[in-house]
Amino acid sequence: MMALAWVLISEGLHNEDFVQRYTVGYARFRDYLLGHVDGQPKDPQWAAALTDIPAQQIVDLARRMASKRTMINVAYSLQRSIHGEQPFWMTVTLAALLGQIGLPGGGFGLGYGCMNNTGSGRKAFSGPRFSQGSNPVKDFIPVARVTDMLLNPGTPFDYNGQQQTYPDIRLVYWAGGNIFHHHQDLNRLLEAWQRPQTIIVHEQFWTAQARYADIVLPATTALERNDIGSSASDRFMIAMQQAIAPVGESRDDYSILAGLAERLGVAQAFTEGRDAQAWLYFIYDESRQRAETFGITLPDFEQFWRDGLLEIDYPQTDNVLLKSFRDDPDAHPLPTPSGRIEIFSERIAGFAYADCPGHPVWLDKPAPTHALHLLSNQPKTRLHSQYDHGSYSRSSKTQAREPLTLNPLDAQMRGLVDGDVAKVFNERGRFWPA
């Protein structure tokens, strides 16, 4: 992307008017890109040596992008790597140089194709939902630092240029999710997970998190309780009616929490006199009233529950990313200090982070110490670790292990054939797929 930007600027193909009106910090980045700062122009020859993409192909692509309406789409996964901020900052910078941000079919997109709602309309009103309320606790940690927090209570840490302090966590109450699925360095996490005095989880299955909890409260699945299915980009609203009785001692999450509230002497304050079905009625009726303000009439709850499915007729409207900002950047500023697209950020530069300076930069990754690179994609028979015990999930496995796909030449060099169980390892850990 930097080489594409180099071509745009060097050949005068960038949109100078857009850059001047909608961005800040362009000159600082331009000097870096052209090599005035470090003596290395980020030109197509430089990029070709890094990427194995022929330099002329990069030049041709830049010219094509400047000659037509161009939308740059970047996968989410690029962030999950060392220096993962840089590709996204550079994506926005490249789109700004083209000057098509805020135009239909132009600008940039993130993660298009990983979900099925791209291009679909959105409801004018929000569906049935609980208010999130206001959390009186303002302290937080990044999601990937749970282990660091538990192992280092009272220790300061940096986050976005600010120093904060890890709290001393004595009790963990976890409803929904499985930290042993999404956290890194599981052996270190397992050590940290012993530090709290008590760990309580709501769980439907005997997951790793349930095994390492002190108290497990069995929770129902969606098949064992009533609920309402709805999303902002879906024209349907579904009455998710209980299909089977709760299995064993399981209870729905609301019933669990209401029972705890009763033991704590705050049942009325928590339930407000409503059971789970009464709350479904209440939040549906709230959504029905919100719909009325947009001229949309929904049936009453009883009819909705009898019909089981509601199709909402609402107008399809174009949703162009940053259109209002492009139309009037003063009236619709971005949530940045300047209100503009910050190609160079004084605030981020002020953090003095070596791995994230004040504008997009090329930062070399560490030299590989092993011959293979592991990509951990989503398994095709489930989402994350959900329903891993089920027959469909297990149908994709070999010898009850996750399948590992390897180039036949790489497999032959290691004496591996289909069906073998192999140890995959580096200095951080190991696992055994098939």
UniProtKB/TrEMBL annotation:
<feature type="region of interest" description="Disordered">
    <location>
        <begin position="383"/>
        <end position="402"/>
    </location>
</feature>
<dbReference type="InterPro" id="IPR050612">
    <property type="entry name" value="Prok_Mopterin_Oxidored"/>
</dbReference>
<dbReference type="GO" id="GO:0009061">
    <property type="term" value="P:anaerobic respiration"/>
</dbReference>
<keyword id="KW-0560">Oxidoreductase</keyword>
<comment type="similarity">
    <text>Belongs to the prokaryotic molybdopterin-containing oxidoreductase family.</text>
</comment>
<dbReference type="GO" id="GO:0009055">
    <property type="term" value="F:electron transfer activity"/>
</dbReference>
<dbReference type="Pfam" id="PF00384">
    <property type="entry name" value="Molybdopterin"/>
</dbReference>
<protein>
    <submittedName>
        <fullName>S/N-oxide reductase, molybdopterin guanine dinucleotide-containing</fullName>
    </submittedName>
</protein>
<feature type="domain" description="Molybdopterin oxidoreductase">
    <location>
        <begin position="4"/>
        <end position="263"/>
    </location>
</feature>
<feature type="domain" description="Molybdopterin dinucleotide-binding">
    <location>
        <begin position="372"/>
        <end position="430"/>
    </location>
</feature>
<dbReference type="InterPro" id="IPR006656">
    <property type="entry name" value="Mopterin_OxRdtase"/>
</dbReference>
<dbReference type="InterPro" id="IPR009010">
    <property type="entry name" value="Asp_de-COase-like_dom_sf"/>
</dbReference>
<dbReference type="GO" id="GO:0030288">
    <property type="term" value="C:outer membrane-bounded periplasmic space"/>
</dbReference>
<dbReference type="GO" id="GO:0043546">
    <property type="term" value="F:molybdopterin cofactor binding"/>
</dbReference>
<dbReference type="InterPro" id="IPR006657">
    <property type="entry name" value="MoPterin_dinucl-bd_dom"/>
</dbReference>
<dbReference type="GO" id="GO:0030151">
    <property type="term" value="F:molybdenum ion binding"/>
</dbReference>
<keyword id="KW-0500">Molybdenum</keyword>
<dbReference type="Pfam" id="PF01568">
    <property type="entry name" value="Molydop_binding"/>
</dbReference>
<keyword id="KW-0479">Metal-binding</keyword>
<dbReference type="GO" id="GO:0016491">
    <property type="term" value="F:oxidoreductase activity"/>
</dbReference>
